[in-house]
Amino acid sequence: MSDRSRTYLKDLRTGQLAEASLIDGVSRDEIERSESLWRPILLESLEIRQRSGIAKGSWPEHSHWDWRKKHAATEGLIAYRMFGVECEGDMQGLMLVSTAGHPCRIAEQRGKEQVYIDFVASAPWNSRELVDSPRYGLVGRVLIATAVQLSLAEGFRGRVGLHSLPQSETFYATNCGMTDLGKDTKKEGLRYFETTPAQAAAFLR
Amino acid sequence: MATDKKTMTLNLTAAEMAALEKLSDQKDLSKTAVLRQALRLYQLIDSRLAQGELLYFEDKDKKNKSELMVL
Prior knowledge:
heterodimer, A: alpha+beta, Aminopeptidase, 9-stranded mixed sheet, B: mainly alpha, 48% helix, extended
């Protein structure tokens, strides 16, 4: 089931806020359309980087994510929720979260329930790593705020956790104010971040 | 965010209610939230087992693994 509510992104071409839709329960058709728009841009960008001899380490780290597969693997499972932000008729960002099976790790809230962000990504035309002039800003912030709001709605008091790709670590630590619990050897060595209720409240202010 | 919810009456034994209250207290969740979490996990595990995957508990220190059978 899909539900839409109003949110706002920053149009980086004008500097103005732009009205957008937050979609709770992104449909298969919406995913198909997003992938068909995102994929060619990502592939072109990777080809340019390959031809230019740019080291793989500086390529966008989520470029191989296949949202069709993620949607198919989680469709109908109530432990998962997929959110999207749509603006100008196009999907500007996607996020897959789980609401069960990822207990908190920070000592003061160890074992408590939280919203775990499995995957979150902006459309390629919003990524500074991919284009010189990104279209929309605040996509990541809107989606992380959505995860915090979901955590509050579920009674998890704003607790949110995720494993970050190296290119996004600063965003989660600095912009979102999450606690960095270090590298997780059981998750490809990615750093694990988590919010406390106080951090979540501060982030939403 | 989707908020459409249905209401139902649930009949529990005293032992089941005591377990629910204990989990509610330990997890800092309402009893409804505990039951919703249980349903999410049950559906997720059932779905993965139906696809042929197995569920194990692993002893952190002894490295023993035991398969959990879910009916």
